[in-house]
Structure formats: C-alpha cells, structure tokens
Amino acid sequence: EVQLVESGGRLVQPGGSLRLSCAASGFPFSAYPMDWVRQDPGKGLVWVSRITSDGVTTTYADFVKGRFTISRDNAKNTVYLQMSSLRVEDTAVYYCLRNDFGSPGSWGQGTLVTVSS
Amino acid sequence: DAVLTQSPLSLPVTLGQPASISCRSSQNLVHDDGNTYLNWFHQRPGQSPRRLIYKVSNRDSGVPDRFSGSGSGTDFTLKITRVEAEDVGVYYCMQGSHWLWTFGQGTKVEIK
Questions:
Q1: What rounded mean pLDDT belongs to chain B?
Q2: Which residues have C-beta within 8 Å of that of residue A28, sequence separation ≥ 6?
Q3: Confidence check: pLDDT of A11 > 80
C-alpha cells in the first residue's frame, strides 16, 4: 500500500523558516517524481513544487520561487520542502503527492503550516 | 497556465438523484503524448483529496460505478448517476497535461 506521511508543519513567525518532510513507502520511491500542493484554509488547491525522480530538476510556482527549495533523499525515501522568508499567505495545509505522470493518485494526510505573529 | 473553471460551485442534490459538474479549461488539455490528463478528486471535510477519475474517464479502484467522467479538449464533466449520502464534500478537477498543474475552484456537493 502506498503511504505518504508529511511532517514538520507548525506555527512560525513571518520571515521564518521551516522544513517539511514526506516519508514514502509502499512503492519504488526513486522511480517517481514528487510534488507538493497546498490548500489555503477553507479554499482550493494550488500546486507548489516538483522534483524529478533523480532529484536533478526542480520546478516551482512563481509565488514560492526563490523562497522554497524542494529536495529528496532516495536512500531514505523522503522528499523535503525547505521554506524560508515565510509570509502570512503561505499559511496552508501542505500535501505531498506521488506524481503519477500527470494524474496524482496518492496523497499524504497533509501538514499544517501557520505563519502568524 | 491552464485555468480550470468549475460550475456550479455549489450543488444541492436530493438523495438518489443525478448530479453533474462541469470543468472548462482555458487551454487544450491534450498532452504531447496524446493523453489528456484531466482528473477528478473528492475531498471530505478534514480529509485529503481522493482521486476518483484519471485521464478523463478512468475510474480508480474502489470508486463506485455511479461516478463517470467524460469530455475532451477543453470541456469535461463529472456525473453521479444517483447521489448517496457519502458523496457529499468538495469535488475538484485538476489538469496534469501542462507542467504547471492547476485545479478547479471546487464544487461543494450537499444533500438538500
């Protein structure tokens, strides 16, 4: 069974930093690109970032470019999202997704990031 | 970016009656490989989204056959033949044909 377990979300002050982790199991992790998607409180879903299966290529939504960094450790079956210069508007539930080549079928339970003073 | 517009945004339905949700894209969703990566998700309060339909019309394992997806190009539809109580929640369309994935705004389905 595919499992994705996010962690690391918490309350952080504006301008602060946070690293989210997503531990994967139940599938050949190193064979899949991985993505992060976020959901603002009570609102819709927005794609945030992607990393290729080998970790070489990363892409970002414009609103996080230069502030967030995605990475992965295939030996640990884990993908990370390093978040810095956090803004109030980054408050959201962050989901880790297995990128099933355009049709993400596996999502984690999400981790809540709250940016507030 | 491919903007996805869902309608309606709110859908009160009677148990046992059909329901239909539209998803229109600002760009053609046919990928260079010939596939159309238009997917439908269902999200219950407090839960992660669950994929129901992938590549327009393929039902995921365990999804009841009362759910069906159709469409092509820029216009897509999710239909529920007979709504059951467990179908309440928010439905999202999502495109993975373009590198920047985008989601519709969501359609909230509730029982009248």
A1: 97
A2: none
A3: yes
Query: What gap in Å lies between CA B69 and CA B60, rounded to an integer?
Result: 11
How many CB pairs below 8 Å do chains A and B form together?
A: 52
CB contact under 8 A, B96 and A103: yes
Distance from CA of A117 to the nearest CA of B (A): 25
Both tokens of A79, joined, read: 């993908």
CB contact under 8 Å between B94 and A107, yes or no, is: no
Q: Where does residue A8 fall: left (phi above 0), alpha (psi -120 to 50 degrees), or beta otherwise?
A: left
Per-residue pLDDT tens digits for A68-96: 999 999 999 999 999 999 999 999 999 99
Rounded CA gap, B51 and B41, in Å?
Answer: 4
Contact B96 A35 (CB under 8 A): no
Q: Which of A14-18, A35-39, B46-50, B89-93 has the lowest mean pLDDT?
A: B46-50
Task: Report CB contact under 8 Å: A102, B96.
Answer: yes
